[in-house]
Amino acid sequence: MANTSLVRKRSTGDIWNIMIMVLLCAIMLYPFWQTVVASFMSESEYLTSRFKMIVTMPTLASYKQVFQDGTIFIHLRVTFLITVIGTAVALFMTAYSAYGLSKPFKGSKVVMFLIVMTMFMSAGLIPDYMNYKELGLINHFAVYILPYMINTFYLIIMRSTFMEFPKELEEAARIDGCNDFRIFFTIVLPLSKPILAAIGLFFMVSFWNTYMQSVFFITDKELKTVQEYLQKMITSTQDLESIMLVESGEEGFSAETIRFANIVMVLLPIITVYPFLQKFFVNGIMMGSLKG
Q: In this structure, how many other beta carbons lie within 10 angstroms of the beta carbon of residue 183?
C-alpha cells in the first residue's frame, strides 16, 4: 500500500509540474505569437481585433512594404557580420585562453584572481569611450568585436571543462610528438563540441543583440545594428514614416503592423538556430559546472 501511495503521489506531482510548465510556456509564447499574427493582419482587421490568435484574412502587405523600403537589410547585414565574426573570434579566443589557464603554472591563482575581478569591476562608459577613441575604434566595425573577444564567465566554465579533460590522452599525444598547440586543435577542441556549441550559442545571441555599442560608439548610419534600428522603429515615427511613404501599389498595412513585421524579421534568424544547438545545452553546461 505504501508503494502504491508513493507512486500515486509522484504521478499527481508530475501532472501538476506538467500543467505548470505548459502554463508558463503559454504565457511566454503568447507575446511572440501575437506579434507574428499581428504582422499578417490588414489595417482594418488589426484595428477591430488586436488580440486574435488566428488571422482571418492574412496579408503580406506589411512585409512587402518593409522589403521594398529595404532599410532593414542594411542593418541586418551589419548585425549578421557582427554575429558571425564575433562569435567565431570570441569562441576561439575564450577557448584558447581557457585551455592555457587550465594548466598549472607559477602564479596561476593570482592570474585567475585578476581575471575574475574583471567580472565585478568596470571603468565605465566615459573611460571606455576615451580608450576606444585613442585606439581608433570609434565609428569602426571593430568596436563591436575587439572589446568582447573574451568573456570572463565563459572562460571560467571552459577552464573547468579543460581541467577535467583526461590527462592520459594528452600524455599519449605528447609521446607521439604533439606539442600543446597540436593537442589543443586536434584533440581538445574536437572532444569539447558540447561546451563549444553551448557557449557559441550564448555568444551568438549576445552579438546578435548588440545595441549599446551602436548607440554610444557609432554615428555612421551604415554601421548601425538592427537592434538600434528596431528600437527607433518602435519608439520613433521618423523611420517608420519613411517606410510607409514607399509606394508599393498595395494597401492594407498600418504603422503597427509594419512595426510587428520588423520585429518578426529581426527575431526569426536567431530563433531558427536554437533547435539545432539545443541538445548541446545540458551536456555543455554540465561539463563546465562539475569542477571549479
A: 20
